[in-house]
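hey team, just a heads up i'm posting the complex here instead of the shared drive bc the drive is being weird again. everything in one block, sequence lines first with there labels, then the predicted structure for the whole assembly after. its two chains so it's a bit long, scroll down
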Amino acid sequence: MKPSSPSLIRPSAKAYFSYLFAGLFILVFLDSWKRAEIAPQLFFSPRGRASLLKFFSAMIPPDLTWNFLSLMLRPALETIQISVWGTLIAVMIGFPLGLLGTHTLAVRGILNDAELQGAPLRRSLRYGVYFMARAVLSLFRSIPEFVWALMFVRAVGLGPFPGVLAIGVAYGGMLGKVYSEIFEAVNDRPLEALQSTGANKLQIFFYGWFPQALPNFVSYTLYRWECAVRASAILGLVGAGGLGQQIEISMRMFNFNEVLTILMILFLMVAGVDFLSAKVRALL
Amino acid sequence: MSVVNVPAQQYRLESVRKQFGRQQMALDGIDLNIVRGERVALIGPSGAGKTTLFRLLNCTLRPSSGKLWIDGEDIDLLHGQRLRKVRQRIGSVYQQHNLVPRLKVIHNVLAGQLGRWPTLPSLLSLFNAADVELARSALSQVEIADKIFQRTDELSGGQQQRVAIARVLVQNPEVVLADEPVSSVDPTLASTIVRLLIDISQNTHKTLLVSLHSVDLALAYFPRVIGIKQGRIAFDLSPDKISDDMLEDLYSVNVRDPIATETTRETVEPIAYSSLG
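-- predicted structure starts here --
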């Protein structure tokens, strides 16, 4: 959309920069290969092959006895329940903070021009809230849910509840960031029209913003729920209940057949959630 | 500070300028008086600043400098609740009708009363439409009452423009502003919609400002026609005083400064807002 202005940088200089960036790009990967100690040849060395084989053959066949399966029913259910409540808390955190952190809603664009021009106090207040919301969201998502779980286990003790809290907080940060991006991508022409009727921000949001963002909003939230099912299984490893705790127990007892069973259950659950969210998205 | 106003004065603009970014002067010193109940057409090449002027007149934007009074109120002093109250008295119809595509027609129509609707009932109405009769009567005035419960994006362009007009009917403002309301519909429908806007404003004594691509429509239906070029008023006359030369001049490219004109034409209108947002 911008008028094409004659570039100030000479072509040769521009080419120089792109070579530089290409070089840096390649360098990053080469250096990371070394430092991340990537060594695919290990798969082919006799020792590596033997231990891989041992690991997988120990898992087969999965333990499909009714005895074990019925024992896994409760932890599986618990995993789903952790993920459901974790995601709900994440939405409750991410939605309002994402809203406050939406650039075009809070501080700039057609919905703020008349409101903030010539009102320095209002403007700085809005920017304050906006940056605060963004900062809280970054903090929440920069700490991995695993670490959140360790902290909440200290705070509220072992069991599923710290898992719920960990997913709620970490995913709240992720959801909030993505929500604000979804809201910013909405067509602002209908919003301008709503504003011109004298509607307030909340009305503009629910009449114009949210209906337009709804499909993306729902599908991203459902995707996060799917991730939460997986995450809540992992969190069990640090004592936050669910299937993860069972994986941990079976691993410690060297019952790898049971581990495979649990992984299969997990796979079915994630596939089930995926199926369900596809159905919901089709409704929109 | 206080300015003596003629009571019937709807709009008063004194050397209003609007600048986007550093260079683009979208409006460059507009002086304008509009009396309540007047019907005015705006014409001019695209990029002349008509849309920016509309956005100033419906309080979407503020002037970069100069003064703007609406109904005697200095809009420099309006913020928050008071700004919204003034917006509520001004109804807008847009070129792209600017409806919310995923909402039902009834909600887009009832959105016209958002300015005077308390927040909670207005939000609940999205689940259970509050005032079906109000919406239905507005829609029947524009002759599409049967579409009331349809989703808005299922309607044709012309029908959507009627829904946008029904929204203004529900809003029931003192002023109706229409920015190129007919440039995306066919010519017969165009004159129907212009006449519809004129009927509405006449029946309820509203001030009406319409910007039009079609000079013929402007000259045929409006007692006062304002020509705008490069952010300035080129003429402000009744149609019988507007000569062909004036019109030719209005739409001609300025030969003396071709590059500047070219930039204005190409860039001002489309990026008028995106440069800000």
